[in-house]
Amino acid sequence: MQMGKSVAPSDDIGYHYALDCFGNIFEGRDIRFKGENVHNYNTGVIGIVLLENLTDSEEGSDRVAKVRKFLNTIGLNERPQVPDKQKQSAHRFIDILLEFFYINTLGGHREFPGQPGEGKICPGNVGLSLVTELRRSKGLSAP
Fold first, then answer.
1. Bridge partners (DSSP) listed for residue 48
2. Tell me, what is one Gene Ontology molecular-function annotation carried by this entry (predicted)?
């Protein structure tokens, strides 16, 4: 990397922030750098990832999804839920971001056109219900 250039390192996380299941918020990529989390839609976007699998057993086609589908058929798979602490943290964190940035849109990967691979289901049906709840309570629009 050349000195004096504002370029994000190539070995960092593409999200600006991550929220874990216990409500902790972690800083990822420096907010001054463009993220790499939404294919073709990163300019002017603050990338936040929820550290939890929030997909239903019907979603996805990878090995994890196949195991979850099997467990669901024999009655051993419960529908995931957003942990209360993570949900509360997401609400508070969006409020903080709204104090410092002009934000009018909030969305999950799959709400942005042309997302490849697992981005087509991200953040999952359960995660999207949280995104919808956040949008409604904060007065934000869908992508």
1. 17
2. N-acetylmuramoyl-L-alanine amidase activity
Q: How far apart are CA 143 and CA 141, in angstroms?
A: 7
HSE (CB half, 13 Å, CA atoms) of 102?
1
pLDDT tens across 88-129, in order? 999 999 999 999 999 999 999 889 988 887 668 889 899 999
- Name residue, tokens 């359960």: 126
Largest CA distance in the chain: 58
Q: Give the ranges where 61-123 is alpha helix by DSSP (H).
A: 63-73, 84-100
Token duo for residue 21: 């299941």
The answer to whether 14 and 37 have CB atoms below 8 angstroms apart is yes
Model pTM? 0.82
**Tokens 């991200």 belong to residue:** 122
14 near 25, Cβ under 8 Å? no
Alpha-carbon distance of 78 to 55, in angstroms, equals 11
Q: What is the mean pLDDT of residues 46-70?
A: 83
